[in-house]
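Step 1: inspect the first sequence and its tokens.
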Amino acid sequence: MILSPLLLLGALGCGNVSNDIFDDDVDFAAALPEESRQTLSFSDDTTDEAGRGLGERADLVELSVAVAGGVNAYVFAVLGVVDAAIELPPSERTEDTRRWGPHTGECGVDFTLLMSRSAGVYDWSVSGHAAGTEDAVLLYGTHFAGTSVAAGDGRFVWDHSRWNEWCAGTETGLVEVAYDNRDGVDLVVGVNGWTTTSGDVEDWTYAYRRTGSLGDFQYRTVTDLEGDGSEELANVAVRDRWIPGEGGRSDATVTGGAFGEDPWVWSQCWGPTGRLLWQEDSLAITEQVGVAAACAFTDVAGVDRI
């Protein structure tokens, strides 16, 4: 008697070899971070090069675009490792687990991605080692499936200190992302204990939400607001709200630096391409521009999530 390949594998004790277990690869992959669900897209239209010729782009739009780009850089580092790990099919499968790797990735690091599933909850981790180092966890997370696997919520943590130990970098710290994709994109990104090349240790938090009809981005940062290289840095809390395709409003509360402890509130409204439509501030420092009626949002809104 000649056994078919599938029957032969079953007879040899190779476990579940039905098509279902291979089809489930898609669900496991959907529980991992993915660009469209875990990155910030700050008012897409504001980055439209063609629109910049319509007028001056709002200063707070410029600041928020730069900040969003910096946050995404952390997340893209995570996505790069995950994407590289699952580029090839899983190396091991059971009904409720997957293993990818080991694969050799950037900096010559050997990565392995492990996943387990129980009642719609997916736990995963990426471990690895560089030449001459012990195996260690670089990245881990938990995902709770929603109406579909991808439309769920969860969190993941990236150990940037470990990454730079392997890749001869200098910056250290942890990046933690909590996300909810059950209704649009909702992210809270924390950067904790970040040691910069200058030796400073800093913490940052960013909150972002986008549904089909509304965007909301909040953050706190320390910056040279005057742009003159001054060592007197200001504490800036910014909230951006926008309606895709229509425009938005940015409200900034500034303390410290040249502004002391009395808060300075600076508001700007902008059109679909980020062009400044209206500007006002509480200390009459900036030039009054436009009329408030041009704003997509007429009320001042402060940072309230972080």
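Step 2: inspect the second sequence and its tokens, then contrast the two.
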Amino acid sequence: MDACPGRLNQVALYITRSGVFYGQCSELCGVNHAFMPIVVEAINITN
């Protein structure tokens, strides 16, 4: 996914297990690039 300053992007994920998943921005998109961690918390909605 391309990152452009001032533009909001969305992504859909299909996660098959509960947990906390971490990532890091991998596109040099601006001055605050190093401060763009990604955290996704997946929960089981059937319980």
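Step 3: confirm your contrast with the notes below.
The beta strands are 19-24, 37-42. Residues 1-47 form one domain.
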